[in-house]
Write a structure and sequence with these properties.
The complex is a heterodimer of chains A (182) and B (172). Chain A has 182 residues and is α+β, with helices and mostly antiparallel strands. Helix content of chain A is 43%, strand content 29%. Chain A contains seven helices and six strands, in the order ααβααβαββββαα. In chain A, strands 1-2-6-5-4-3 form a six-stranded antiparallel β-sheet, with helices on both faces. In chain A, a hairpin with a 4-residue loop joins β4 (117-125) and β5 (130-139). In chain A, α3 (50-60) packs antiparallel against α4 (65-72). The termini of chain A are far apart. Chain B is built from six helices and no strands. Chain B has helices spanning 5-19, 27-41, 49-63, 69-96, 106-139, 151-171. In chain B, α1 crosses α2 (27-41). The N and C termini of chain B lie far apart (160 Å). In chain B, 6% of the residues are buried. Classes of the chains: A alpha+beta (182), B mainly alpha (172). At the A-B interface, α1, β1, α3, β2 and β3 of A face α4 and α5 of B.
Chain lengths: 182, 172
């Protein structure tokens, strides 16, 4: 009876672990509770999944192979921008998420507290790549940016972004969109 | 005394008529035939239970030996896991070979641009504030010259250097 029970457990675990090994979603973070705590809909709310990111990577491959390579490693992108709201209302939720992520092995890469601006950037790192990035920015009392990027992210791109804010340099989306208009 | 060939033929004929479906016409053979039929209809006696179990065990173990259920389940799970991995790899390869799964529209690209611009702006803001905070402690010297023990001597050496440098700037 015991062996049959063990076998049944393995029957359930093996296919599940095989799927999980292929799709690493460890860097995905649900940011919806933060929007709920502010009580307003975000001014910008973008949520792209793996299929869309693969589509972007393929679309950009000719025009910007480097950026296509970066986007090809991204399996999900979530960006929410709030303007004209009291961001202090979300502070308990933000601190709760930071604690949760820290308990799950995320590293607080950047923490800035300057007057009324608070920025938290957390990374989930593996040996060779960054699997997740969460940005929680509360600027002044009226602007908030919450973002989550997950997948297999290039550490060089992340470093460039943190160091100088020039991660997207060289990407001419205006020119790329001209392809659609022609 | 050995029976003659004719006697043998009669015996064989009698035996054959007892095995036939129809009863023989000879009265003696007729009674024998009926007796044989009645004996044939008697129920077969069952084997003693212990014997029966032994016979069944010998026959079933030889012909119906199969793997235990849990091993079969494990093998099925392993096959399913391998199948899923193979299927996902196939799907990934087809995506890498240039087949776009979703047709990207201009609106999608505009949204991507907006998301990247928001990220870029946030990163710039972060580096600006963090840079300002980091540079503040280094902008003014932490130790003043007057606080050093050999301050008068050091001032005597540094004063001529400062005046020479300012003279050069004035000339140029």
């Amino acid at each position: 009876m015991k062996t049959i029970f063990t076998a049944l457990l393995l029957c359930l675990f093996l296919p599940f672990s095989a799927v999980m090994a292929q799709t690493d979603d460890s860097g995905r973070v649900d940011l919806a509770p933060l929007a709920g705590s502010l009580g307003v809909t975000p001014k910008v709310n973008i949520n792209f999944g793996p299929a869309m990111m693969a589509g972007f990577a393929e679309t950009l491959r000719q025009a910007n192979p480097e950026m296509a390579g970066v986007l090809g490693g991204v399996t999900g992108l979530r960006v929410m921008v709030f303007e004209g709201v009291d961001t202090r209302g979300a502070e308990p939720q933000v601190l709760g998420i930071i604690d949760q992520l820290a308990a799950r092995g995320w590293t607080p890469a950047v923490t800035v507290e300057d007057d009324d601006t608070r920025i938290n950037l957390l990374l989930l790192e593996s040996d060779t790549a960054v699997n997740g990035l969460v940005l929680l920015l509360r600027d002044g009392a009226d602007t908030a940016v919450f973002a989550n990027i997950h997948g297999t992210l290039d550490p060089i791109m992340i470093g460039r972004m943190i160091g100088s804010g020039q991660a997207m340099q060289g990407l001419d989306l205006e020119a790329l969109m001209g392809q659609f208009q022609n | 005394m050995n029976p003659s060939p004719d006697d043998r033929l009669v015996e064989l004929s009698a035996e054959h008529s007892l095995g036939a479906r129809q009863p023989p016409k000879h009265p003696e053979l007729h009674a024998d035939w009926h007796l044989k039929q009645e004996l044939g209809q008697l129920p077969t006696p069952d084997l003693p239970p212990a014997w029966r179990a032994r016979v069944l065990a010998q026959t079933t173990h030889k012909h119906r030996r199969r793997l235990p259920l849990h091993w079969l389940g494990l093998a099925a799970a392993l096959l399913l896991a391998l199948g899923l991995v193979w299927f996902q790899q196939l799907d990934r390869n087809s995506a890498e070979n240039g087949q776009i799964l979703i047709a990207i529209t201009e609106t999608d690209l505009q949204q991507l641009q907006l998301a990247l611009a928001a990220l870029d702006d946030s990163a710039r803001r972060t580096s600006r504030i963090a840079g300002r905070e980091l540079s503040a402690p280094f902008s003014s010297p932490l130790i003043q010259l007057d606080e050093l023990p050999l301050a008068p001597t050091l001032r005597r050496w540094t004063e001529p250097l400062k005046s020479t440098a300012s003279d050069r700037q004035n000339h140029s």
